[in-house]
């Protein structure tokens, strides 16, 4: 499995010849040269994860790619005439592209405030190895080998994120969701210090860099 980071929470996951792009939002830097995608996967509707114009632009280069997401994002896509496939969490659903299985997990965005409604948020596990939770620290119901770990945001603290990783117990954690920070690396120190003590390797990906597992 090869994982490339394009900023914030936008990751390209390549497995067994299948190419999946996660969360191309306003802080992502998806190269114009990126082509031959099999799917765009969107965890939720917030602009740092989903910009409809950006999705439409990518689909213009990758016309055979499908969009996998939840219903709330799907309604926004429908307004632009973009078809989508709904994949929700916790209902035994799954989608297979080639030899790669995609499973949904969870239902809601992490709570920001009791007076602020929680939007739909579905995390996705790829090939029973990699898990992108979107904006949620809800414990997944399945084992995770490679965890995309949100480390910054108005709905979490770095301490909460580290505790989430310890609970999930992946082999590897890849920090994400730090594109909102002026200096993203400031939230990498604690995971790098603490998580290896719990048997979790921390893989820091700069934008436009890749790692293979």
From TrEMBL:
What are the residue boundaries of the Metallo-beta-lactamase domain, all occurrences included?
A: 7-177
Q: Which GO terms describe its molecular function?
A: hydrolase activity
For the keyword Transferase, the answer is no
**One Pfam family hit:** Lactamase_B_3
Arranged from A to Z, the UniProt key words for this protein are: Hydrolase
Q: Does the keyword Hydrolase apply?
A: yes
What superkingdom does the record give? Bacteria
Q: Under what name is this protein listed?
A: MBL fold metallo-hydrolase
Q: Which InterPro entries does the entry link to?
A: Metallo-B-lactamas (IPR001279), RibonucZ/Hydroxyglut_hydro (IPR036866), UPF0173_UPF0282_UlaG_hydrolase (IPR050114)
